[in-house]
Structure formats: structure tokens, C-alpha cells
Amino acid sequence: MNKMKFSVFPSENFVDLCLYQFGREQCSPAHLFGPAARNHYLFHYILSGSGTLITEDGSANEKTYHIDSGQGFMLFPDMITTCIADKKEPWEYVWLEFDGLKVRTLLETAGLSRENPVYRARDTELRDKMAAEMLYINGNRNDPPFCLIGHLYLFADCLARSSAAPQPKQGSPLRDFYVHEALVFIESSYGEDITVEDIAAACGLNRSYFGKIFKQSVGKSPQEFLLSYRMAKAAELLEITTLPVGEIGARVGYANPLHFSRAFKNEYGTAPRDYRGARRAAILTK
């Protein structure tokens, strides 16, 4: 029988690096999960035992990886994967689900990619510190959000520095400048009726070139990022205020309450009122 514990992080209001869910699972022999795809990045670290990861690239091509204790694997958004525990020594793993502006740089530094999702450590001391941070997050789910995010950053640092395949950071100072300018503009103007063209114009770039360098740096198109940013701000207002849903929608750039509710449900999987109720119920049960 599988033994699993998991928790949902109580806030999505961290843009650079945001934690979504985390957990720990002792799998039963030959336990199978998938094929399935995730919405965010999901890192598993194997505490004991072993298992198999199967990935698909969307064109019927499969890759199979055997993963042992002390190793790990990264699942990427929308990547179809199947996880199978060993029949004799099934794996026990701890996992974190996260996303954010800094994830792309983190994974590039660690040498992890869709083509190379398996984590192998070159520094066992840093690997053990990384595992300790993952276990801390899982064992202290009621810590304040800033505390847990701090431990997520420590995990990220250990992951990058312990990886057996580290890569130098690839970046362009000019590209980083433009992306920073875009983020500043979005942060100050997300409540207005702005478009991608407006953001590009604020950076002094044409829309096509701006969209290209933004996605290269952030991993999302400007439109996708603007939507996620607005919905994160809306989620914050739903949690900390009693403002009507329609007013919250207006504050994040949606004049039409129906359009706002539809966008929020697409992002979070639930309607704004239901989200507010679930969050408040979760706080009361802590």
C-alpha cells in the first residue's frame, strides 16, 4: 500500500520562485502513476529504493530512465511521463512542485532539461543538504510562507551546485535589461487595460522581437505571464480582503466580471468565490 503525505503551499504571491505543492510518498511494489502531465515543474528526490521514469515527447518517442536512491528527476510542464516503482525495492521519494521566473535559469545551471531530466549529484554533501531542505519543507508545512520560500531557495541553490552536469549561465545583459523593464511596467500597470504591444512599447521594442526575448528569458510568452501575474494578484486579494469578486477583477484589469471569473478558473481550476472559501477554510483548520 502506498503511503503519501502532501500539502498545498498557502500563497501564490511569489513571482521569482513560487511553491505550489509538496509531499513524500512510500510507493508499493510496481506502483504506477501516469501517463500524466503537470502544469508546473515537479522535482522528485529518491530517498530509498528505485524505479523507472518514462517520458514522451509528443511524437510517440519514449525514453526510459532507471533511477536509484540518491538520484532524482525533474518533470517539466506539459511533459507526458509515467513513473513506476521497482517490484522488489520500490522507491520512496520526496517532491516539490514549483514555478517562477528563476526556474529556467536554475535548471540551465543544474544541467536539467526535457532531454536530460535525471538528477545525479557530483557533490554528495550538497546533495544531502538539498534533500534536507526538501524534508524540512515537507515537515514544516505550517511555517509562514516567507520561511518556506526561503527554504525553497536553499533547495534551489543546493540543486544547482550539486548537479553532476552544471552549466554556465547563458544570458545577455541587454536582454535582461529589457525583460526587467517589462516586469517593472507589468507590476505598475497590470490593473489597467494593457496589451503586449503596450509592454513592448514601454521597452522601446517591436512586439515580435520583444515576445521572442521575453519567452527566452522567462519561459512564458508576455501574454501568459501577464495573465498569471494578474491572477496571482487576484488570488492575493481574494485571501486578504472582503472585496466583491467583480471589484477584484476590475483591480487586475478585467472590466467584465464574467471574463475575470473564466480566466481565474482556467488558471486555478476553481471559481474565485470557491477559491476564497477554500482558502479561508484551510486557514481555520490550521
Number of strands: 10
In round numbers, the mean pLDDT is 86
Would you identify the CATH H-level superfamily of the largest domain?
Regulatory protein AraC
Question: Runs with pLDDT <50, length 5+?
Answer: 6-11
Give helix % range: 40-55%
Strand content: 15-25%
CATH topology of the largest domain: Jelly Rolls
Largest sheet: 6 strands, antiparallel
Distance between the termini: 28 Å
Provide a count of the helices: 10
**Whole-angstrom Rg:** 20 Å
The figure for the number of domains is: 2
* Lateral arrangement of strands in the main beta sheet: 1-2-9-4-7-10
- CATH architecture heading of the largest domain: Sandwich
Q: Strand pairing plus helix content: what structural class? A: alpha+beta
Order of helices and strands: EEEEEEEEEHEHHHHHHHHH
Highest-level CATH class of the largest domain: Mainly Beta
Can you tell me the overall shape? globular
